[in-house]
Amino acid sequence: VQLQESGPGLVKPSQTLSLTCTVSGRSITTNYYWSWIRQPPGKGLEWMGAIHYSGTTYYGPSLKSRTSISRDTSKNQFTLQLSSVTPEDTAIYYCAFGGGVHTWPSWGQGTQVTVSS
C-alpha cells in the first residue's frame, strides 16, 4: 500500500490549506481509518483527524473547528482542509492509515506546508 500527499507547499495566512492523499494498493472504502497527522517544526506529532472506511469522520479536539476531511472514492483519495491558517500551522503533513484513529502503521512520505505571506 502506498500513500502520497499532494498540495501547495505555501499558503497565505487566513486562507484554507487543502491537501490530498492518493492511495494505491488498497481501497479506502473496504477497511481501516485514514488519518491526517502533522508535525510542526521542533514539535511532536499531532493527529488532526481521520475518515473511516464507512465515511464517518473523526477530528482532534484542538483543530476540530477548522478541519474537514472528505474523500473521493472514485479516485481512491481522501482530502484535508484546514481553514483560517496562521504561521503556527506550518508543518509537515502526513497521511496514514491503520486499525484505529491513533494507530498508523503505514504512512505517506509527508509534505511540507508553510504558512506565510
Question: Briefly, what is this?
Answer:
Helix content is 0%, strand content 50%. It has strands at 2-6, 10-11, 17-24, 33-39, 46-52, 57-59, 67-72, 77-82, 91-98, 106-107, 111-115.
Cα-atom Rg, whole angstroms? Answer: 13 Å
How helix-rich are the residues, as a percent range?
A: under 10%
Order of helices and strands: EEEEEEEEEEE
Overall average pLDDT: 96
User: Can you tell me the overall shape?
Assistant: globular
Give the tally of β-strands.
11
Please mark out the parts with pLDDT under 50 across 5 or more consecutive residues, or reply none.
none
Tell me the major beta sheet.
7 strands, mixed
Query: Span between N and C termini?
Result: 36 Å
User: What is the number of helices?
Assistant: 0
Q: Determine the structural class based on helices, strands and strand pairing.
A: mainly beta
Q: Could you tell me the strand content as a percent range? A: over 45%
